[in-house]
Structure formats: C-alpha cells, structure tokens
# Entry
Amino acid sequence: MIADDAKPRLPRGVRLREDKVRDRWVLLAPERIVKVNPIAVEIIKLCDGSRSLAEIVAGLAERFNADPERVGADVRGLVASLADKRMVEL
Amino acid sequence: MSATQPPPEGLLAELTHRCPLACPYCSNPVALDAPRLEMSTDEWRRIFSQAAEMGVMHLHLSGGEPCSRRDLAELTAHAVAVGLYTNLITSGVGLTRDLFDRLVVGGLDHVQLSIQGVDAAQADWIGGYKGGYAKKREVAAWVTAEGLPLTVNAVIHRGNVEDAPRMVDLAVELGARRIEVAHAQYYGWALKNRMHLMPTREQTDRAYAAVEARREHYRGQVVIDHVAPDYHARYPKACMSGWGRQTLNVTPTGKVLPCHSAEIIPGLEFWNARERPLAEIWAHSPAFEAFRGFEWMQEPCRSCERKAIDFGGCRCQAMALVGDAAACDPICTKSPHHGLVAEIAAQDSVGPVEGFAPRRYVREPV
# Structure
C-alpha cells in the first residue's frame, strides 16, 4: 500500500509525451512505450515529486467533481503498477 | 497495404560497425561495413529528423560500438532536439568521461550496457578485450550516479550459461533498473559460431528457470526481460513483432532493413536512406513489403491460428535453417523441419566453447 504522504514522480529516463502522429499520449521508458488514457495522463502530470498522493487525489476529486475514494483507488492502482515497472518513483 | 501502413515506433541506428570488442555472437553481419563508407553526421541527422516526423519514438543508437563515432554527442543532441527518446547501446569501452558528460548535456535518455560475464576473466575472454569488464563497471557507476536509467544486457551462451542468474544479481549490484537476459540468437556471428555457443538442453532449462525465479525476488527493484532460447522452444518468437510492422534498422551505410539480419535473405531489394526519404522506404521498399501481412505465407502458417501472434516466426531463421525465407520458422513444432532444430541444438552443444571466431572486420580485397 502506498503511503498518503508519498510523493510520486517520474524518474529520469521516463517521459510523458503527446504522440501527435497517432493522436495519443504515451509514457516513454527504456524499451517501453506505454499508451496512457486521458485519465491517467491527468494523474501522471501531477506526479512531479512536489505533491503527495493525498494531495493528488484531493486535487483530482475536486477538479472532476468525483468521489475521492474512487479517485484514490484509481491513482493508487496506476501509481503502484508504474512503480512495479520502475516508471514511477515514490 | 502500403498506404495504410502504421508508422514504426522504433529505429535501430547502426552508426558504425567499428567496435573494440570481438564478441563471437555479435548480431552484425559477418561482412562488416568499412569505416570509410559510413554515413556523415549530416546524413544521420537528416534521418533522425525524418524518423521523428514519421512517428518513430525510440531511437536506439547502436553499432558496432556507437562511441567509436566522433560525432556521437552531436547526433544524440540532435535526436533529442527533434523529440526522439534516445537509447545508447554500448559496450562501455570507448566511452570516455568527457563523452559521457556531453551525452548527458545533450539529453541522452537511457544507457544499455552489455556485460559479457560475471567476472573479469570470463567477460574479457568472451569480449576479447582485456580490461573491458572493469571499464563497464566504471561506466555503470557514471550512469547511475547521474541518475540515468541503466539497462544491463547479458547474452547467454554455453560459455556463461551456468552464470545466467548471477548476471541478474550483478545487474542489481550495478544499480540497473532493467536487465535483458538474452539467450543467444543464432544470426550473424552467432550463427557462424553456433557450435561453440549452443548450450545443452539441460543447461538452458536450468538457466531459464533460475532467471525466472529471480523475477519475484527482485520485484520493483529490477525489471527482467528474458529472451527465450529459441532452439529449445515450441513456438517461434514474433520476430521484430512482425516484419515491417514496428521497427526499422539503418546500417552504417544507410541501407534500411526490416531487421539487422535481413541481408542474408537473397533477392530482397533494400532501399537506402541516403537516396530516399525514410517514410517512403518504410511504406514502399520491396524488402519491407516482402513479408508484410499474411499473403506471403505458406502452410502450415497460412491457416495457422497463431499467425497473427508470431507472424510465422523469423524469416532469417527460416532462410538460415531451411533455405527458404517464406517457410514456417522451423523453431515451430508445426514446421515439417522442426526435427532439424533439435538435431542441430544437440549436435552443436557438445564441443568446446574455445575456438570460436572472434568478430572482426576483414578488409575486402582491393
């Protein structure tokens, strides 16, 4: 379980990029191109090492007028799976 | 099909075939391109710009040893500037501290470092370069201290197969985020040296299982990409994720290939990036068109339920082992020639590792 005060960030060598040729967003990492859906794009943009997980969840829940618990589950799920692939650092 | 061909995601740039190492399983062709015929800085820059424009995202700066190019930092900076994700595939030998610093300033994204063995004696013997292992450790330390992602690439063969799991431990010790444990693929120099490199079935199975066991152990610490030993497999690999589907390869002299080994297939017409735009080559070059889609397939591939999974396997392997590039890759148990693969693997795994032909450039007769 990721702590509320963890401050996720993309490590060096992992970049969120708009792929204009294919009209999509991707995370570029060593030997990996991960397609990123629009919700995940919003989450990843906030993973800059300055915000805690709790702040990211609260911010997104407010901005999209969504249930914080559901947003929290989405954010944790995404961050955990990216951390496993070493595409996010905590 | 050409008009709707989706763009490639990756480009492997073989900047040069020069290399201080002499690994007997090198994937370069046995006939290496002469240094004097290599493309200029401007030619490579133009190709990188075209690649980014057509939708390439990953650029693999490879060789030979890419650090043998004096303009490597300039080329890397240009690639970054046009939006490509840059991956330096290096032996570490020839990479000076000054060059490394210039690559970092230019925006290099990732370093993939080859390791030939788990200690100096083994690694320097296989690589044919004394002091190579120590140099690699030094380079690994530069990369991790800088905070750049490091991948260790370890090719597994009979000379180091028992150490395959220790390669993973070594990668972790060096601070790698990722390791590629690649059982040797028999093309180029590796095909020439197959009788010195092929492990036995038992060695392969043991090594494979031991590396897999490390996966859970190092979860979240290192990502393991495991390239299966295909002579001992049931189904062929989806070579290049399918011919002309996702990646292209540019040789030191500008030839554009669907894969690094494609030149062994007779009759294919390769176009050159010196003469034509990359997008045109990708869409229309006869070599790329030759094995796209499913029309070219023979049985058992044509009616096979796996044809969209493995695309009939590897064309170069079908060529090398069966003599027909359009045949089913004989690695597949459905191939009528599958028996041959086990025969070769058994035959080639009994002799000594010693005696392999070290990879080197042989000057062509004038």
